[in-house]
Amino acid sequence: MRTSAPGQLRIIGGDFRGRRLAVPDQPGLRPTSDRVRETLFNWVAPWLPGARCLDVFAGSGALGFEAASRGAGAVLLLERAARVARQLDANVGVLGAARVKVIETDSLRWLREEPATPFDLVFLDPPFAEPLLEPALAALARGWLAPEARIYLETARGRELPPLPGGWELVRDKEAGQVRYALAAPSG
Question: Phi first, then psi: what are they for 46, rounded to 5°?
């Protein structure tokens, strides 16, 4: 399994394939591994072209930048740490990724706002030490999700995933290394 050097993230597919981006040293920040990203983007390949994507706890931006590289129409990265958000902005510039926007904000507070245009693909990969998955899922159910949306969830290996919103089910669920990751879709 190839991984990036410490302090770096490598885009593994699409237009930006092979590009390396700086990642600041920040407690709780761990880019999703190449192996997990490859599996995830194989799962969502049918829904990705032109999709509106939301990376709720962006951190390194690994998921959002990978989505943009692979054809997402628009990617919004939410990040609460100012230094990390500045690095995400810098990485947008390095890539020339005009479809990617960064907002420095508390993600749960941002999700309490009135939804504008719903998202087709949402990434939920919060710091594992913080109980953020369940409130983020509840907030997303308030109109942030397009009818055929997909939600990616990531947590520590061995942990239970929180209950999904009504009308949603897990369609994929795997473990790799220290991570459990899953994909949810509307039931039926």
Answer: -65, -25
Average pLDDT of the residues in 148-169 = 92
> Which among 75, 163, 80 has a CA at the least distance from the CA of 122?
75
Q: Is 112 among the domain residues?
A: yes
Give how many domains the chain has, as a whole number.
1
Contacts of 116 (CB under 8 A, 6+ apart): none
HEC states along 38-59? HHHHHHHCCCCCCCEEEECCCC
Pairing mode of beta strands 8-10, 20-22: antiparallel
Domain that residue 156 falls in: 8-186
Q: Tell me whether residue 1 is in a domain.
A: no
| Model confidence pLDDT, tens digit, residues 53-77 | 999 999 999 999 999 999 999 999 9
Any domain includes 109: yes
Domain for residue 2, yes or no?
no
CATH assignment at residue 155: 3.40.50.150
Mean pLDDT of the chain: 91
Which of 37, 19, 26, 30 minimizes the C-alpha distance to 94? Answer: 19
Q: Which of 61, 73, 71 is nearest to 29 (CA)?
A: 61
